[in-house]
């Protein structure tokens, strides 16, 4: 049914870069047989899933939205893919994204725009616009995204889906093409909070192949979601982050947010206001740390090891000249912009002024979170300042595009988990997202409060 749906609507939505129809059907048939034979199966066995194209899949094209990886067939599976395969979820295919996960609209993909199913003239968010659009358009019930600065949560907000960025270290990064290694996390994109809990539990947990993976059991997320569904939040302290509300947020976004606070109050939660002054500098710190790490991670795409190789049009074919020709042809403008920014921020003489200062701001943000979580069990804000914008609106203005991430970025800088869940429609008829943040390793609180609000 999902493959039929993809065939019917993906021409218009373009959520997928690659559809693995036959292997998905083969998995589905195998699970049917196992079920008929009475074999014990995982709760999600047979439920199809789509994967953001930054997740490495053995023998299946994996491009990270970039021409530089066109034609590369990975020789191995990411840990999360192994877990998904072991549990018997048919993999429908790979979804579109901003090149190397850099962007907030999926317009930076080298393979064309993904459309927002709510309005085909509008962006589906980014960088994981393909995963969010696939779930919103009923092409897939579950998807995997990655979130370095909001790329699961902001697409979730603008497409009316649930998206979760787990605690840093909660889900293995082995086999995710790295953008900014100290910020990257993979997580679920679904239509309900309980679906996210099931998928998060499946892919989460310790992995010795990721040196930053947390070596302790994941708190029970499914139990928390089931408990939250009873809508009793007595004793739960909810902190509204004053720096992430009010000015700069679209009127309809603020209105829906305030209505949700009333619902939380009605469920017995205590609503308090908290201030995190350093969040004002989060965007500036992120856009130094992220390009710095990305410039280093992307050095491996040199025309020798993976995918594209371009030889210089004339002159000698040296390693350096092949590298320059390949990177010149293979990377898009946004990726080049960030490599240049990152290389500059890391260069001798500027390192302390830029990268060093940004790291200090990062520590201040972590302290703000610690202080706020001294008073509140969870923190909340709108996920994104506006609903989905039109194609082209922010493409020529990188700073305007970056501003879309103000509310999502602090969580990545501090490593804490965050969820975006549907929060009704704004006055323009487009979906709004409600963001919940919890202390590191307390991802269960997202599910408790999220399920109560859903
Ligand atoms: N939009 C942010 C950026 O462009 C976040 C990207 C992400 O989370 N992958 O960096």
UniProtKB/TrEMBL annotation:
Q: Which residues form the active site?
A: 52, 127, 151
Write out the function statement from the record: Allows the formation of correctly charged Gln-tRNA(Gln) through the transamidation of misacylated Glu-tRNA(Gln) in organisms which lack glutaminyl-tRNA synthetase. The reaction takes place in the presence of glutamine and ATP through an activated gamma-phospho-Glu-tRNA(Gln).
Kindly name one Pfam family recorded for this protein: Amidase
Where is coiled-coil annotated?
A: none
**Recorded name of the encoding gene:** gatA
Write out the catalysed reaction: L-glutamyl-tRNA(Gln) + L-glutamine + ATP + H2O = L-glutaminyl-tRNA(Gln) + L-glutamate + ADP + phosphate + H(+)
Record's keyword terms, sorted: ATP-binding, Ligase, Nucleotide-binding, Protein biosynthesis, Transferase
Q: Output the HAMAP family linked to this UniProt entry.
A: GatA (MF_00120)
**One GO MF term, please?**
ATP binding
Mind telling me which GO cellular component terms the entry cites?
glutamyl-tRNA(Gln) amidotransferase complex
Write down the EC number.
Answer: 6.3.5.7
Please cite one Gene Ontology biological process associated with this protein.
Answer: translation
Q: What class of enzyme is it?
A: ligase
Amidase domain boundaries: 1-446
Subunit notes for this chain?
Answer: Heterotrimer of A, B and C subunits.
By sequence similarity, the record places it as follows: Belongs to the amidase family. GatA subfamily.
What is the taxonomic lineage of the source species?
Answer: Bacteria, Bacillati, Actinomycetota, Actinomycetes, Micrococcales
Protein name in the entry? Glutamyl-tRNA(Gln) amidotransferase subunit A
Keyword Nucleotide-binding listed = yes
